[in-house]
Amino acid sequence: MRNKIKVYRAMHDLTQEDLAQAIGVTRQTILAIEKGKYVPSLDLAFRIARRFDVSVEDVFQYDEEPRTVDID
Amino acid sequence: MKKNSFYLLVGCIALALLALFWYSVEIHNPFVIETAFILAILAIWYARKNVTDLIDDERSAKINEQAIVRTFQVFWVLFCAFSIGAVMQILYVPTFPREFPMVRPPEALGPRMMGYFQLGMLCLMIFLYVGFRVYYARKYGDWETDEE
User: Fold this and answer.
1) Is residue B148 part of a domain?
2) Minimal CA–CA distance to A28: which of B107, B116, B70, B62?
3) What is the pTM of this model?
4) Hey, of B53, B54, B57, which one would you mutate to test binding to chain A, going by the most A CBs within 10 A of its CB?
5) Which of A13, A70, B57, B94 has the most CB atoms lying inside 10 A of its own CB?
6) Contact residues, chain B, for A37 at CB < 8 Å
7) CA nearest to A17 within chain B
Protein backbone atom coordinates (compact mmCIF):
# COMPACT_ATOMS: atom_id res chain seq x y z
CA MET A 1 0.00 0.00 0.00
CA ARG A 2 1.48 3.32 -1.09
CA ASN A 3 0.31 6.66 0.18
CA LYS A 4 0.72 10.37 -0.44
CA ILE A 5 0.23 11.61 3.08
CA LYS A 6 3.54 13.43 3.05
CA VAL A 7 2.61 15.22 -0.16
CA TYR A 8 -0.80 16.25 1.16
CA ARG A 9 0.73 17.36 4.44
CA ALA A 10 3.12 19.58 2.57
CA MET A 11 0.27 20.98 0.47
CA HIS A 12 -1.75 21.79 3.62
CA ASP A 13 1.33 22.92 5.54
CA LEU A 14 0.78 20.40 8.30
CA THR A 15 3.36 18.71 10.48
CA GLN A 16 3.00 15.07 11.46
CA GLU A 17 2.06 16.22 14.95
CA ASP A 18 -0.68 18.53 13.59
CA LEU A 19 -2.19 15.77 11.48
CA ALA A 20 -1.91 13.27 14.32
CA GLN A 21 -3.76 15.60 16.70
CA ALA A 22 -6.42 16.36 14.09
CA ILE A 23 -7.31 12.70 13.61
CA GLY A 24 -6.65 11.51 17.15
CA VAL A 25 -3.59 9.30 16.77
CA THR A 26 0.06 9.58 17.76
CA ARG A 27 2.75 11.21 15.62
CA GLN A 28 4.49 7.84 15.52
CA THR A 29 1.44 6.34 13.82
CA ILE A 30 1.49 8.98 11.08
CA LEU A 31 5.21 8.40 10.61
CA ALA A 32 4.71 4.61 10.45
CA ILE A 33 1.94 5.00 7.83
CA GLU A 34 4.01 7.40 5.75
CA LYS A 35 6.95 5.01 5.76
CA GLY A 36 4.72 2.06 4.87
CA LYS A 37 5.44 0.27 8.13
CA TYR A 38 1.80 0.23 9.13
CA VAL A 39 -1.33 -0.09 7.01
CA PRO A 40 -4.14 1.94 8.60
CA SER A 41 -7.65 0.66 9.13
CA LEU A 42 -10.40 1.78 6.76
CA ASP A 43 -11.71 4.10 9.46
CA LEU A 44 -8.36 5.83 9.93
CA ALA A 45 -7.78 6.01 6.17
CA PHE A 46 -11.10 7.82 5.76
CA ARG A 47 -10.29 10.20 8.60
CA ILE A 48 -6.96 11.09 6.98
CA ALA A 49 -8.58 11.60 3.58
CA ARG A 50 -11.37 13.72 5.10
CA ARG A 51 -8.77 15.93 6.78
CA PHE A 52 -7.33 16.72 3.35
CA ASP A 53 -10.78 16.97 1.69
CA VAL A 54 -9.96 14.28 -0.84
CA SER A 55 -11.07 10.71 -1.43
CA VAL A 56 -9.31 7.71 0.10
CA GLU A 57 -8.05 6.63 -3.32
CA ASP A 58 -6.29 9.98 -3.73
CA VAL A 59 -4.26 9.40 -0.58
CA PHE A 60 -3.85 5.62 -0.62
CA GLN A 61 -3.00 3.47 -3.61
CA TYR A 62 -3.25 -0.25 -3.49
CA ASP A 63 -0.21 -1.97 -4.96
CA GLU A 64 -1.64 -4.89 -6.85
CA GLU A 65 0.91 -7.64 -7.28
CA PRO A 66 1.57 -8.46 -10.92
CA ARG A 67 -0.37 -11.57 -11.82
CA THR A 68 1.30 -14.29 -13.77
CA VAL A 69 -0.66 -15.71 -16.66
CA ASP A 70 0.08 -19.13 -18.00
CA ILE A 71 0.36 -19.01 -21.76
CA ASP A 72 0.37 -22.35 -23.50
CA MET B 1 -3.83 12.29 35.60
CA LYS B 2 -0.63 12.78 33.64
CA LYS B 3 1.30 9.95 32.00
CA ASN B 4 4.32 10.24 34.29
CA SER B 5 2.15 10.26 37.41
CA PHE B 6 0.53 7.07 36.16
CA TYR B 7 3.90 5.35 35.69
CA LEU B 8 4.94 6.51 39.16
CA LEU B 9 1.75 5.10 40.60
CA VAL B 10 2.32 1.75 38.86
CA GLY B 11 5.85 1.64 40.31
CA CYS B 12 4.53 2.36 43.82
CA ILE B 13 1.86 -0.33 43.47
CA ALA B 14 4.48 -2.85 42.31
CA LEU B 15 6.65 -2.07 45.35
CA ALA B 16 3.65 -2.35 47.67
CA LEU B 17 2.78 -5.72 46.11
CA LEU B 18 6.32 -6.92 46.65
CA ALA B 19 6.15 -5.93 50.32
CA LEU B 20 2.74 -7.58 50.70
CA PHE B 21 4.05 -10.73 49.03
CA TRP B 22 6.82 -10.92 51.59
CA TYR B 23 4.36 -10.24 54.42
CA SER B 24 2.08 -12.94 53.02
CA VAL B 25 4.96 -15.41 53.05
CA GLU B 26 5.85 -14.47 56.64
CA ILE B 27 2.34 -14.98 58.00
CA HIS B 28 1.70 -18.03 55.76
CA ASN B 29 -1.47 -16.53 54.37
CA PRO B 30 -1.74 -16.49 50.56
CA PHE B 31 -5.07 -14.61 50.60
CA VAL B 32 -3.31 -11.35 51.52
CA ILE B 33 -1.25 -11.23 48.32
CA GLU B 34 -4.05 -12.71 46.20
CA THR B 35 -6.53 -10.04 47.31
CA ALA B 36 -3.89 -7.32 47.05
CA PHE B 37 -3.00 -8.42 43.52
CA ILE B 38 -6.62 -8.24 42.32
CA LEU B 39 -7.09 -4.84 44.01
CA ALA B 40 -3.82 -3.58 42.48
CA ILE B 41 -4.93 -4.60 38.97
CA LEU B 42 -8.27 -2.83 39.51
CA ALA B 43 -6.47 0.29 40.76
CA ILE B 44 -4.11 0.31 37.75
CA TRP B 45 -7.03 -0.20 35.36
CA TYR B 46 -8.97 2.68 36.97
CA ALA B 47 -5.91 4.96 36.95
CA ARG B 48 -5.18 4.08 33.30
CA LYS B 49 -8.71 5.15 32.36
CA ASN B 50 -8.06 8.57 33.86
CA VAL B 51 -4.74 9.27 32.10
CA THR B 52 -5.31 12.26 29.86
CA ASP B 53 -2.10 12.54 27.83
CA LEU B 54 -1.64 8.93 26.77
CA ILE B 55 -3.06 8.33 23.30
CA ASP B 56 -3.99 4.71 22.68
CA ASP B 57 -4.56 4.54 18.94
CA GLU B 58 -5.20 1.60 16.65
CA ARG B 59 -1.50 0.99 15.94
CA SER B 60 -0.59 0.67 19.62
CA ALA B 61 -3.67 -1.52 20.12
CA LYS B 62 -2.48 -3.76 17.27
CA ILE B 63 1.05 -3.96 18.72
CA ASN B 64 -0.42 -4.95 22.08
CA GLU B 65 -2.79 -7.46 20.54
CA GLN B 66 -0.08 -9.17 18.49
CA ALA B 67 2.28 -9.34 21.48
CA ILE B 68 -0.45 -10.85 23.68
CA VAL B 69 -1.45 -13.41 21.03
CA ARG B 70 2.14 -14.57 20.50
CA THR B 71 2.78 -14.74 24.26
CA PHE B 72 -0.32 -16.89 24.75
CA GLN B 73 0.68 -19.17 21.90
CA VAL B 74 3.98 -19.90 23.64
CA PHE B 75 2.22 -20.15 26.99
CA TRP B 76 -0.23 -22.80 25.74
CA VAL B 77 2.51 -24.96 24.30
CA LEU B 78 4.53 -24.88 27.53
CA PHE B 79 1.47 -25.23 29.73
CA CYS B 80 0.16 -28.22 27.76
CA ALA B 81 3.57 -29.91 27.79
CA PHE B 82 3.75 -29.46 31.56
CA SER B 83 0.14 -30.53 32.12
CA ILE B 84 0.60 -33.72 30.11
CA GLY B 85 3.48 -34.62 32.40
CA ALA B 86 1.41 -33.81 35.50
CA VAL B 87 -1.56 -35.87 34.24
CA MET B 88 0.79 -38.78 33.59
CA GLN B 89 1.61 -38.81 37.29
CA ILE B 90 -2.05 -38.88 38.28
CA LEU B 91 -2.72 -41.76 35.91
CA TYR B 92 -0.11 -43.95 37.46
CA VAL B 93 -0.50 -47.54 36.30
CA PRO B 94 1.67 -50.18 37.97
CA THR B 95 3.76 -52.33 35.69
CA PHE B 96 3.27 -56.06 35.38
CA PRO B 97 4.09 -58.40 36.97
CA ARG B 98 2.93 -56.57 40.08
CA GLU B 99 5.30 -56.46 42.95
CA PHE B 100 4.11 -56.41 46.51
CA PRO B 101 4.20 -54.22 48.40
CA MET B 102 3.47 -51.79 45.57
CA VAL B 103 6.01 -49.03 45.52
CA ARG B 104 4.95 -45.86 43.80
CA PRO B 105 7.82 -44.20 41.95
CA PRO B 106 8.92 -40.90 43.47
CA GLU B 107 7.07 -37.90 42.03
CA ALA B 108 9.15 -35.97 39.59
CA LEU B 109 6.92 -32.94 40.05
CA GLY B 110 5.91 -32.44 43.64
CA PRO B 111 3.68 -29.55 44.77
CA ARG B 112 6.75 -27.45 45.58
CA MET B 113 8.19 -28.01 42.11
CA MET B 114 4.85 -27.11 40.55
CA GLY B 115 4.92 -23.83 42.48
CA TYR B 116 8.40 -23.07 41.17
CA PHE B 117 7.33 -24.03 37.69
CA GLN B 118 4.34 -21.67 37.84
CA LEU B 119 6.55 -18.87 39.10
CA GLY B 120 9.01 -19.57 36.29
CA MET B 121 6.19 -19.57 33.74
CA LEU B 122 4.90 -16.26 35.08
CA CYS B 123 8.34 -14.66 34.79
CA LEU B 124 8.82 -16.16 31.34
CA MET B 125 5.47 -14.76 30.18
CA ILE B 126 6.43 -11.29 31.36
CA PHE B 127 9.77 -11.46 29.54
CA LEU B 128 8.16 -12.95 26.44
CA TYR B 129 5.47 -10.27 26.40
CA VAL B 130 8.05 -7.51 26.69
CA GLY B 131 10.15 -9.16 23.96
CA PHE B 132 7.20 -9.53 21.59
CA ARG B 133 6.05 -6.00 22.43
CA VAL B 134 9.46 -4.63 21.44
CA TYR B 135 9.51 -6.77 18.28
CA TYR B 136 6.08 -5.64 17.06
CA ALA B 137 6.71 -2.04 18.08
CA ARG B 138 9.80 -2.13 15.87
CA LYS B 139 7.89 -3.86 13.09
CA TYR B 140 5.18 -1.21 13.11
CA GLY B 141 7.64 1.65 13.16
CA ASP B 142 7.83 2.73 16.78
CA TRP B 143 11.44 3.83 16.62
CA GLU B 144 11.39 5.24 13.12
CA THR B 145 12.90 8.66 12.80
CA ASP B 146 12.03 11.34 10.33
CA GLU B 147 13.56 14.51 9.03
CA GLU B 148 10.86 16.58 10.77
Assistant:
1) no
2) B62
3) 0.75
4) B57
5) B57
6) 139-141, 144
7) B148
